[in-house]
Amino acid sequence: MQLIPTGEPEKPRNQFPPVYVGDTLIPEDDIAREMQHHPADEVAEAWHEAARSLVIRELLLQQATKLALPEELDEEATLATVLEKELDVPEPSDADCERFYAANPSRFRSPTLMAVSHILLAAAPDDPQERVRQEDMGKQLLSSLLEGRAQFGALAKQYSACESRHQEGSLGQISKGQTVDEFERPVLTLREGLNPELIESRYGWHIVRVDQRIDGEQLPYEHVKPQIRQYLSESVTRRAFRQYLQVLAFEAGVEGVDLELPDSPLMQ
Question: What is the mean pLDDT of residues 202-214?
Fold first, then answer.
């Protein structure tokens, strides 16, 4: 469960060290208010993310003062102007894009499309006895299908807990991202026909039949070149942003918070 403060956040007093950017103290009340924008499983994590975000803003505002930016700019415009003036972000070249395309062929394929039918033997994830019982039932039904003693559609109508039972178990056409991950990952690897193994998901056990499979095809480079260029540009910008903040933090001095940054901008 995520900790999402509502209303005025509770102030985590006396739990964390004071946070400074140079001689400027980041007020504890400001960090507490900022925490509502950084939901997390633990108070300490939310506090750290909030403090780090405010430190980044303070570093950029201090740099804006050094650059003597116009005072009539509001804060957001000031921050954006600092980054525009200070960040040196080269545009990715055609050669960069071609190398990325060649090194990551699986990222540039049209989606695999599959027509899938299933029989869901439902069991809650927190009911181990029922899950064992339904697994045993699934093995019996699967055995009868593999041996030709039963018809898939008839078993789906009788046993499946999914609404697809009214269509003899048919889920229609599916592709990546349309079903839950633990079901999707094994199903997308299957060939056409009845899968001889049960597939487990949070909903229970599935007997799966692939009715049709249309494998994705490699997309031509020119088709995905704009997408690659945008991805590489954003990646370079993130890297330049981290390096720039590290320089500002070293020059100003930051105390009370770790400024190590993940691979994404922290500006809110």
Answer: 96
Tokens of 128: 């181990």
Please name which of 225, 267, 228, 241 lies closest in space to residue 89, comparing C-alpha atoms: 241
Tokens of 77: 């415009």
Q: What pTM does this model have?
A: 0.57
Bridge partners (DSSP) listed for residue 21 = 24, 254
Q: Which of 252, 238, 234, 245 is nearest to 56 (CA)?
A: 245
- What pLDDT is attached to residue 71? 79
Residue 102 pLDDT > 90, yes or no? yes
Q: Which residues of 93-107 are buried (b: 16+ CB within 10 A; e: fewer)?
A: eeebbeebbeeeeee
Instruction: Tell how far CA 72 is from the center of its chain.
Output: 38
First-residue to last-residue Cα distance in the chain: 23
Q: How confident is the model at residue 2 (pLDDT cuts 50, 70, 90)?
A: very low
Q: Please enumerate in sequence order all residues whose Cβ is within 8 A of that of 232, keeping only pairs 6 or more positions apart, or say none.
A: 92, 96, 97, 100
CA distances from 141 to 52, 183, 262 (A): 56, 19, 48
Interval 29-58: pLDDT, tens: 999 999 999 998 899 999 999 999 999 999
What is the distance between the alpha carbons of residues 259 and 249, in angstroms, rounded to a whole number? 8
Q: Count Cβ atoms within 10 A of the Cβ of residue 78 and give its class: 0-12 exposed, 13-18 middle, 19 or more buried.
A: buried
Distance CA 175, CA 110 (A): 10
Of 217, 218, 113, which is closest to residue 171 (Cα–Cα)? 113
